[in-house]
Write a structure and sequence with these properties.
Layout lengths: L2 E6 L2 H18 L9 H11 L5 E8 L2 E13 L8 E11 L8 H15 L5 E3 L6 H9 L15
Parallel strand pairs: 4-5
Antiparallel strand pairs: 1-2, 2-3, 3-4
Helix pairs in contact: 1-2
Length: 156
C-alpha cells in the first residue's frame, strides 16, 4: 500500500465513509441513532464543512479512500472555574471495515498528533461510547487516559 493522508472538503466522500462508524453506533445504541441515510449525512457534512474550526482528513491508497478523521481545534476560554487552553478534539475516526487492523487508524491519529504539535496544542481529546470495545482497546493502545466520565440515569 502507498498511503497518504490529505485534508478534504469533499462532503460526499465523508458522508460515504461515515457509514461504517454510523452503522456501529446504530448497532450499539439504536435508541439514540437513526439508521444510516446517505442524503442526510451528506447534508450534515456539507453544512459543517463551512465552519473553519472543523477539519477532515482522509487516508488514501492511490485513488481509494480507506478512512477519515474529523477534528476540531477547540479553544476553551478562561472563566471563574478554569484556565484557558486549546485542544484538538477528535469527533470521529473511521476506517472502512475491510481495511481495519492494518494500522490505518494509528496513522490517522498520528496525523492528529502532528496537527496538535504544529499548532502548539498539548492535548488531544475525544470520547467514545462505553460499549464500543474496539474504540476502547484502540485508544488504550495509543496511551489515551480517562480523565472524566459521563454518566446517566434513566427516569421512568
Amino acid at each position: 500500500m502507498e498511503l497518504e493522508i490529505i485534508q478534504t472538503t469533499d462532503h460526499e466522500l465523508i458522508a460515504r465513509l461515515n457509514k461504517d462508524v454510523h452503522d456501529l453506533h446504530v448497532s450499539l445504541y439504536p435508541e439514540y441513532f437513526k439508521p444510516y441515510n446517505y442524503a442526510a449525512m451528506n447534508d450534515f457534512y456539507q453544512h459543517i464543512m463551512g465552519n473553519s474550526k472543523f477539519r477532515f482528513y482522509i487516508i488514501m491508497d492511490q485513488e481509494q479512500s480507506l478512512g477519515y478523521v474529523w477534528i476540531e481545534i477547540k479553544d476553551y476560554e478562561e472563566n471563574a472555574f478554569r484556565n484557558s487552553y486549546k485542544v484538538v478534539y477528535v469527533h470521529q475516526l473511521s476506517v472502512a471495515e475491510e481495511f481495519r487492523h492494518k494500522g490505518l487508524g494509528y496513522q490517522l491519529m498520528s496525523k492528529v498528533e502532528q496537527i496538535a504539535k504544529e499548532n502548539s496544542i498539548h492535548k488531544i481529546e475525544l470520547d467514545y461510547w462505553v460499549d464500543n470495545k474496539m474504540a476502547s482497546s484502540f485508544y488504550e493502545k495509543l496511551d489515551y487516559k480517562k480523565y472524566r466520565e459521563f454518566v446517566f440515569k434513566g427516569v421512568e
